[in-house]
Structure formats: C-alpha cells, structure tokens
Amino acid sequence: MFASSFASQAPHRQMGGGLYRQVGVETRLTGATPHQLVAMLFDGYMEAVAQARGAMRNGQPGAKGVAIGRAVRILEEGLRAGLDLQAGGPLAQDLHDLYGYLTMRLTVANLHNNEEALDECQQLMQPLRDAWAAIGAQVGA
User: Fold this and answer.
1) Please, which residues have CB within 8 angstroms of residue 6's CB and are 6 or more apart in sequence?
2) pLDDT tens, residue by residue, 102-123
3) Full-model pTM
4) Mean residue pLDDT across the chain
5) pLDDT digits 0-9 by tens, 71-80
6) What string of DSSP letters covers the chain?
7) Distance between CA atoms of 141 and 134, rounded to whole angstroms?
8) Rounded CA gap, 46 and 77, in Å?
9) What is the distance between the alpha carbons of residues 21 and 28, in angstroms, rounded to a whole number?
C-alpha cells in the first residue's frame, strides 16, 4: 500500500517509541477505509509541513529537507497518483494541478528557507482537508 511508505522516515533499525509508532500506523492502515487512508494522507501532509516550519525556524536544514521531502511524496505518490483524471473530470484535473503547484512551492520553501511558501501550502490544503473530513459521515468513515 502506498501509504505505508509515509509511516516512518526513521532508519530500519528503530528502537523504542519509533517502532511503537510505526506499528500503530501500520495497524491503522490495515483497517482503514479508502476515505480514512486519504484523510491520513492529508494529516500526514499537514504534519510534515509543520515539521518543516519548525526545522526551518530552528536552523535544522537536514530535518527541514526530510519533512519537505515527506510532504512532496505524500502529494505526488499518494494524493496526485491516486487521482483518476478520466473519471474525475475537471475536479480531478484541478486537484492534479493544485498538487503540482504545491510541490513546486514546497521546493521553493526548501531551497530558499521561505516560511511564507510553507504557510501558503498549508492554507491551500486546509480547505481540502476540512471538506474531506466533513464528508466522512456520508461515506461511513
């Protein structure tokens, strides 16, 4: 499952809390509905952007790069790759274009330590995340 690649960015030899978190994420993935999986991608994206902001503020370029890389992978390998452009029509195309734009802005944020670009990336994704959460009850999530 594509979402499992987002579960952890720690090395294979995890110890303590890291391994516990990975098992928890994998357990949630196993029992998740498709709606819940997408919600987890939205949440993971927002968390990664927030981690990138914290790393940027703390002068940690390596951690910033890892967090931004995670956000980009969620966009490209999870959300964007999951779109059906044929069946989804204009809405799917608009989302495809938005995810591409967000990927570009995250790259700018990474290269130029641009916190405003991170803010924009969160602000553009928040309405989608909120709308997705709002339809959860209708799809049995």
Assistant:
1) 41, 44, 70, 73, 74, 78
2) 999 999 999 999 999 999 999 9
3) 0.80
4) 85
5) 999 999 999 9
6) -GGGGGS--S-SS--THHHHHHHHHHHHHHH--HHHHHHHHHHHHHHHHHHHHHHHHTT-HHHHHHHHHHHHHIIIIIIITT--HHHHHHHHHHHHHHHHHHHHHHHHHHHHT-HHHHHHHHHHHHHHHHHHHHTTTTTT-
7) 10
8) 16
9) 11
